[in-house]
Amino acid sequence: MGIQHSQLPGKRRKVDSLPLSHQGSPYKHRITGKERKNKILVKQSPMLVVNDNEVNLSCKYTYNLFSKEFRASLYKGADSAVEVCAVNGNHSHPLQSTNKEFNCTVKVGNETVTFYLQDLYVNQTDIYFCKLEVLYPPPYIDNEKSNGTIIHVKEKHLCPSPRSPESSKPFWALVVVNGVLVFYSLLVTVALSNCWMKNKRNRMLQSDYMNMTPRRPGPTRRHYQPYAPARDFAAYRS
Looking at the record, which segments are called Disordered (predicted)? Predict the structure, then answer.
């Protein structure tokens, strides 16, 4: 008994001399493993280039969202200060909310949440982060912050697009119709002008015919009176 009592302090001293991290280590490791298990990993594309003012950002999670109540959101900026859009609820009845400065829609899959961004501007070029929170059933779980996705919005240059054959059909049909109308109008104008000229020529001929005096056919002879000397009536008076 004395030997046992004398050995107990030594064992206690050995236990007390262990580092604090090793004391109660099995329980401590169980907590750490549980905390790591309750973290969701997210995978995003490192960079997306936007040429036509719209882009699809897919967030792939190591968690199945089926039959869970969750909140999936997209944040803008290195400090995630601006919430772009979010979706709440469950897999079958999601409720969406969007920032007024963005045109965003969300599509939810079993392990993927896709954010459809439209009408993006050049000044909205930034880094974007996906976030997922599982609200029910407990415990509360969220994802570890990923490296994010840089969305580079390029300025859109408007260039005239080549006409397709289908789109040019109405144009050529209109050209043909206008050409037929112009040709018909030209024919009508020429016909009316000819009629007017003929009528004018006929009126002039009739006017000349009415102004002419009638003449006898053949040569005409003049009858001259024979010369008779003038009488001097004064001689007879005397």
Answer: 1-28
